[in-house]
């Protein structure tokens, strides 16, 4: 009976193991689904829409093959279409039936270009849209969330939502690669394969054990005996035989010698096979018994109805700031204002251009402070689909344990982000509540009446406080406590005026005046209906002779002498300092005062009074 049960166990084990292996092989089916991208006409760019990327659930894998190096990037679909607006490209999307189709998009021709084309109708080249399209390099654009360049391009895995697309190109001039495929993993979990194989291995071990027991039982019982022929009469053993010749010779070996060798041979292979089968089962060969994770509650930020998408992500902002800092460092080292202008603008560029002039003429003049790159503490992008766009960020400077607040702008889809305002945060600065980076903030118009003071009036009001102190009509609207800039300006003016009067009070005069700068304010909304506003303000120092025979000499002031281009003047000199200031301006109805967040000041210019 033991042999019957052993055979049954062997058969059942073979069936279970075979079924488990079959689930992982012949019955499993393909592990990926692949779609080939084909186009009807060649174009420099190939844009794959997000609906194509998500036509099959799961992570996407992009493969592009062609001659030479291939470029690919992904970003928001709206940004990508704006970047491609002036060139011909192929757009790959899904039609109404869900099939992949390719459409060649021609560049949009502006009205001025169309009028010019009509004026030169006889010129065949002017009638071609490609002739008016500007050639832009896609490499390094601030619009991309990430980009890749290599031969035989393979990107895996991508996890892009439907509002993002992928751009594929060669060099932006030659046709985009023709061999492009997308693939998605197909769910192929076989949760019963593992249990079947393991259970079959256990049954096989049981069958081996039953088989060994059956052999052992048969050996013990030796089966039924038959009646044999009559045996010869047994003779008594002669005990007189010498010891070397006496004894009983056994006709059969002992039971131990019969079974031990076969048992070792049968058990070891069974255990080895089971272990091998067990090791070959992957995680998706087992049922997933773990429950779903409980989400951690987080603060909810309600996106205002109709608000557009944020201009950048945190990863984009970090990469943009790194590029700005790197370019500025190169420009600082080579004293190159043209290079600086590729990543700086506004008051920041004006101040650095002056610094390069002074360092070129004065050997020991101090270089500007490096632009900090990380870690990013705060990112507040403008929620806007069009251009120009703005992004505010707060970056900690690990070198000197300080923090900087900056505001970057992008003029259009083809321009990089440029640093427009940069200031140091005050030591005890408390930032207002801001929207998270994935929500963004709206830009506040310069003449907004929803704040306690419109942004375009802020510079003039604060300059009046600097000039008149508590006598200013705006004094009560600004928080004086903690305003280190106001205190430092007042102390500096008092010291310089005292030094001037000790030597030149009878022959000259020194006066100070603050006024709005030439660069417009920029403001982004906060969660309390207020705004963070960046402004530019100028401080002008004027020194003039009060005696007709007196002249103003600059023997001990190489900075002003270099910028003014003169060593002395009978009419005097003006020296202009540029201030970059960040304020928190509350919304209408708030009891809070306007509060200074950060500031920076550098010399801007010096001139002879005409």
From TrEMBL:
Superkingdom of the organism of origin: Bacteria
Membrane spanning residue stretches: 192-213, 264-286
Keywords linked to the UniProt accession: Membrane, Transferase, Transmembrane, Transmembrane helix
Pfam families: DUF8094
MF (Gene Ontology): transferase activity
DUF8094 domain ranges (all copies): 309-607
InterPro entries: DUF8094 (IPR058407)
Keyword Transmembrane helix attached: yes
Listed name of the protein: Glycosyl transferase
Species for this entry: Microbacterium terregens
Lineage: Bacteria, Bacillati, Actinomycetota, Actinomycetes, Micrococcales
